Structures are given as structure tokens and as C-alpha cells.
Amino acid sequence: MPTKVQCLLTCLVLTSVACGRDDSPSSETGEKHQRIITTETETEAVEQQPKHRTIDSTPDLNASLAIFEKRILPIFRSAKPSSCSECHLSGVDLKEYIRPTQQQTFSSLVSAGLIDLQKPDDSKILQLISRRPEQPSLVTEEVRKEEYEAFRRWIRAAVVNPNLVADDNAESIGSELPIEVIRHSRRDRVLSSFVENVWTEVTRCAACHSPDRNQKQVKEHGEQVSWIKLRDPQATLDYMLETDLIDTDEAEKSLLLMKPTMQVEHGGGQKMVVGDRTYKQFRRFIDDYAAVVEGKYAEVEELPKPIREVSVVTDIWLKFKGIPAKYDKMLLQVDLYRKTDSGSAEYRVATSDRPVFGKGNLWQHSLSLTAPRGSKWAEEMRSKQLPPGIYLLKMYVDHTGKLQNDFTAKLGQDDFIGQVKVESLWPVGYGRMTVVKFPAE
């Protein structure tokens, strides 16, 4: 026996036209697409429409407009970011897919292929809204649910409204940025950059800033010194931003840079100097992050070039004795090349840089393993071990202080001061460092 709802439905088959083409003459109403229309209330009509439309009936011309004004326009007018911000720091916002009027929005979305007129629940705009990160926040998850439901209800009502005509020449909708720029602003990409440039270096800061090792510092200075969040780079980045360790307006004034370089008071002493490898990595992340959140990237050419070399900090220590006092406080960089049967490796496999302690005629620091991105050694060095053997050590000194003037500068042949071959087991630990006599000049 027919149900009460079935008895209420009176169906009328109208002209059927596939999405994006016109296979039959237009009706007198100018309708260009197959539509489903019911005589029930707005909510019941939307909820009870079949996913795959095959019939038409008497239209409720006010249903889609009522939903648009009540559910869609508030998103367009809201000053708050949409759920898109959970995956994109900039470049994408749901507001960019809405126009001031229902007709403009409908036409633009259809023209862009974001509304499926035959299967409204399969519309691409709904797929975009429903995308979520691996660990969504409870707040954003609720916002995403509301946005999805608003668009789903409106699209279901809009595709059956004969007054809404899809226009293939409608104005473009959505972000106008190149897809490469949009991808660059994704939070997961930004997090990967943070891990590669900053998180890999935090072991240098762990003694004072990691909660598993800094009980003394916490007692003296408070919990705020524990900015490292154990095994959680995202939480660490979030905390750095919340506590202004990163300055997106003036990157060079970020406390993450100013304190370890002793440009402002730092209880932990000097950990790096302007222009050294760690400083370059920190600035690389901060400068890029600031450009992303400020929406400064408009063209692909403006994006930072990929770094060809990757690195990982180790607890392998190297010490030079007998360094001339004339190099006091100058930055000394040493690059290690592994000796092979055919000679030395073409690329450095480890590096380290630190100012010389001229009064003691020595230099010492931990090594960072380095490798060409995507190489076999890049995978192997994750063990943070340097294979025993003979290595060629090349040394460079910043005589002129050029790194202080331009942190992006590199030490090259003009800064080369000598080289020496060293054979070592390269043991791990400060107390087991490899000691080398500085070569005579």
C-alpha cells in the first residue's frame, strides 16, 4: 500500500538536459537542466529528494532562496575563517565560493564543475568541504559539519529550482592563485618545513627547553621555558606562535633567533651565530611561514626554491686543537667528505660550524649529517651514525664577517683555510669526541 508521503507526491516529467550541454530544445520557461520539485515543506523536500534524480514535480521556488539567505550568506558575510583554514593557512576560504546572490553563486559553481546537477550529493564543492586533516579539532569539525549541511541542503533545493539557470559564462569562483601556491600554504606542507628546518635542530635546545630534562630551569624561570613539546612538532610550533617566539612581522627579531644568537639575554648562552647553518634553517622556515600567513605568494616564481640538501643533528663530536688565535670568535665551518676507493665522495656527508675559541686555540662542536635530498645516504643517515673510516675534512673561516651582513651568504673558496684527512670510528657522545690537530698553515 502506498505510504502517506508517496500519496503526497505528484510527479511531472520535464525536459531532460545533461550537465554542460543542451541536447534538446529549451522549454518555454527557459529551463536548461533536469530538475526534481516537490510540494512539501523546505526541510522535508530537501531531505526526501532521491540522490539520483529521475522525476520532476511542482516547484517550490522559494525553498532554495530561503536556504541560501539563511545558511549560505552568513558564511559569506562572516569575519571568521571557514573550516578551510584547518588545512590552509592562506589562499583558500569557503567565502571565495559564494557570491552575493543565489543566481550568481549557482551559475558560478555549476560553470566551475563544482555542482553535479544530476547527482547533487556528489557535487565537488561538498567533497572539498568534507576534506579534513588527520587530527581535526573539535571546534573546526563542528564548523565543517555545519558548512557541509548548509551547502548540501541548498544544492539539493537549487538544482530543482527552474528559476536558477546555469550559465557556462559565469564569473570564475574560488581562489585565483596557482595550484602550486595553494598547495604551498597547506598546513601539512608548512609542518613538514618546520620539521625539516627547526624540529631536527631542537636537540640543541633540549637541555633547557625540553620538559623531560629542564626541571632546574623550570624552577628558576617557570613553565614557559618548556617550549619543546615531546614527540609533537605541531604542538611545539603552535606554542611558539602563541608565545611570540616567532615574529611574522619582522622575522629577524623572532626570539627563536635573537636569544640563541645572544642578541637578547639568553640564560643558555650562545647556541648559534647569524649566518650559520642552524640560523639559515630557522630563518628559512620563519621567512616562508610569514609569507604564507600574510598571503604574499601570488605567483609560482615567488615560492622559495627547494633545498637540495637535507640534514640531521647528531651527538657525534669533533674537536680541533692548535687553531691559531687569530681566528678567535670567527665562524669556522668544517665539511666532511668520505674517502672511497676511487677518491672522495662528491658531496659532503657531514658538516659543523661554530665560532673559534682563540684563547684556548680550539674549536669543537657536534656534527650534522648531510645528504642530497632523495639520495640513499639521506635514508641511511637517519640512524644518526657516521660510518667508521677515513674522511677528508675541509675547513672554512668567515674572515670578513660576511655572514653577519648577509645570512644567506655561503663560505667558499675565498674562505678556505686548509684540509686534513682523519680516520675515526666516529663514536657518539661528548666524552668520546674525535680530536684532530689543526694542520700547519
What does this structure look like?
- The protein has 441 residues and is α+β, with helices and mostly antiparallel strands.
- It folds into 3 domains: 4-176, no CATH class; 182-302, no CATH class; 309-437, Immunoglobulin-like, CATH 2.60.40.
- The chain is built from 15 helices and 8 strands.
- The chain has helices spanning 4-8, 42-48, 63-77, 102-111, 124-130, 138-158, 179-184, 187-197, 206-209, 215-221, 233-242, 255-258, 277-293, 376-380, 402-405, and strands at residues 309-321, 331-340, 343-344, 350-355, 362-372, 389-397, 416-424, 434-437.
- Strands 1, 2, 3, 4, 5, 6, 7 and 8 form an 8-stranded mixed beta sheet that branches.
- α3 (63-77) packs antiparallel against α6 (138-158), α5 runs antiparallel to α6 (138-158) and α8 packs antiparallel against α13 (277-293).
- Residues 1-57 have low confidence and may be disordered.
Strand tally, please? 8
Low-confidence stretches: 1-57
Query: Roughly how many Å apart are the termini?
Result: 103 Å
Kindly report the average pLDDT value: 86
Strand proportion: 5-15%
Helical stretch tally: 15
Summarize the structure.
With 441 residues, the protein is an alpha+beta fold. The chain is built from 15 helices and 8 strands.
Notable characteristics:
15 helices, 441 residues, single chain, Immunoglobulin-like, 8-stranded mixed sheet, alpha+beta
List strands and helices in order, with pairings.
Blueprint: H1 4-8, H2 42-48, H3 63-77, H4 102-111, H5 124-130, H6 138-158, H7 179-184, H8 187-197, H9 206-209, H10 215-221, H11 233-242, H12 255-258, H13 277-293, E1 309-321, E2 331-340, E3 343-344, E4 350-355, E5 362-372, H14 376-380, E6 389-397, H15 402-405, E7 416-424, E8 434-437
Parallel strand pairs: 1-8
Antiparallel strand pairs: 1-5, 2-3, 2-4, 2-6, 4-5, 6-7
Helix pairs in contact: 2-6, 3-6, 5-6, 8-13
